[in-house]
Amino acid sequence: MEYKKLIACHECDLLFRKPVLRGGQAARCSRCRASLKGAHGASVPLDRIGAITVAALITFCIAQAFPVIQLQTNGMTSEATLLGAVWALWTGHMRIVATMVLCSAILFPLIELLALLYVLVPLRLGKVVRHFNRMLRVVQFIRPWGMVEVFMLGVIITIVKMVSMARVVPGPGLFAFGALTLMLAYLGAFDPRMLWSTRDEISFDNLLGSAGPG
């Protein structure tokens, strides 16, 4: 069909014929110079992105539920989870820091993963959800504020400093956060705007299917 050869700029809505891209090439709008996503040669690996998103969400839940580190000193044992650390900061009159940790290490990554799943699962089933564009904008807005890797760096520095004072035992949450950091890094390399082309193709196919023959 002719429409499958067209692509619209998502910044200014100018229509183009889909260019054929080869390795290292990029297409830009001639009017606003925005990058054109969904051009030929830029296929979207829905299965891979969806699987990693599901795995990241499961890993996220494990990281929140289990202790990150365990301290053992003088016969006493103390465990720390991320939520416990946020609560300790809040009750310790460091509420700004607690809010920043809560948002950057818990709330924003969770919103990004849920928004991606909300969009990806129906696309994989050949459907387009309501508020599709809004969800992609949420992902793009939230993504820079999720800083799980910064939290991991802070935990590693804390472990190094605490080794001389107590026996530090890494908990399951720490390994889960390490795996989550890698998966979020992979998802961070994926541009969600590429999903617009998949959405457009599915919308056109559904429109033609609903019209039917005659």
Describe this structure as you would to a colleague.
The protein is mainly alpha-helical and 214 residues long. It has 2 domains: 1-42, no CATH class; 44-211, no CATH class. 56% of the residues lie in helices and 9% in strands. It has 7 helices and 5 strands. The strands form 2 sheets. The chain has a 3-stranded antiparallel sheet. Strands 1-2 form a two-stranded antiparallel ribbon. Helix 1 (46-65) packs antiparallel against helix 3 (95-124) and helix 1 runs antiparallel to helix 6. The longest helix has 30 residues, at 95-124. The chain is elongated. The mean pLDDT is 79.
What does the secondary structure layout of this molecule look like, with pairings?
Layout: E1 6-8, E2 15-17, H1 46-65, E3 69-73, E4 76-80, H2 82-91, H3 95-124, H4 132-142, H5 148-162, E5 167-170, H6 172-188, H7 195-211
Antiparallel strand pairs: 1-2, 3-4, 3-5
Helix pairs in contact: 1-3, 1-6, 2-3, 3-4, 5-6
Order of helices and strands: EEHEEHHHHEHH
Distance between the termini: 17 Å
Mean pLDDT over all positions: 79
Fraction in helix: 55-70%
Question: What's the quick description here?
Answer:
This protein has 214 residues and is mainly α.
Structural key phrases:
two-stranded antiparallel ribbon; 3-stranded antiparallel sheet; elongated; 2 domains; 214 residues; 9% strand; 56% helix; mainly alpha
